[in-house]
Amino acid sequence: MRILTALPALAALTALPALAETPSVIADIPATGALVQQVLGDLGTVQVLLPTGGNAHHHQLRPSDAAALQDAGLLVWIGPELTPWLERSAAALASGTSLLLLAQSDTHRRDFNADAHGHEGDHDHDHDHSGVDPHAWLDPENGKLWLTVIAEALSTADPGNAATYAQNAADGAGQLDQVIQQVSAQLAPVADAHFLVFHDAYGYFTDRFGLEPAVAVALGDASSPSAARLSAIRDEIKAESVRCAFPEIGHDPGLIDSLIDGTDIRVGDTLDPSGAGQEMGAQLYPALLQQMGDTIADCLSEG
User: Fold this and answer.
1) What residue segments make up the domains of the chain, in order of their start?
2) How far apart are CA 248 and CA 215, in angstroms?
3) Helices 30-40 and 140-157 meet at what angle, rounded to 10?
4) pLDDT of residue 59
């Protein structure tokens, strides 16, 4: 009888599937990595390819990065529109291990509008500036959506922890709701003010929080602006009564300084749209948004 009662138990035990391990996850930029880390929680640590101070548009994979990608359980990235240096490696990954956030069906996408400030024809020598604007993480509503998408992808790879991933995503979305409320309140009093930024990366942020479109020195992927564009920007600074200018991490602030020389435009703190200058972790993404709101509000509110 002991044998008979033990056999069903043994059969049930041997029929159980092997416990799945938390997949190794790689992200393209710190902002994306922070979203992944929020969902992973204590179950794992995401590896971010873009180094501290790096430029998301211009980066070269190290051999160690390429090797890590081949062993990754999941790559989470915005897409080739932002990081073309990652496209070939991503294409070589096994099916189901590459999650393109910008391609998700419910993601809010906006097109670049090179002539939004009336510069028809002044960008002939700048980098191509058309198509979908890839800086979509700067709309926190996209961030909320992507938390859910990331949780679903991790749950597929690691179903045993699906409930944890879902709860972590929900907690992160709740935190982002608080950030949206706080930043909206900060920026509402300066919604009509004009400001200058280094490159055209802030459209999602200004759209979401009701700000005037930022005047961008460089178009597209932050390539060096042409002489014609610099001349047009000087004219626009005067026409738009630009109040503040913001340097950007990873770019020489001297160009901003030269453009506003002789004006009363204030220089704000440095903006960090991808989070490349912040400490990696789950809090990087909400902190990035809050810091951007603080920085813009502080400068535009002065005087």
Assistant:
1) 25-107+131-181, 189-301
2) 13
3) 50
4) 82
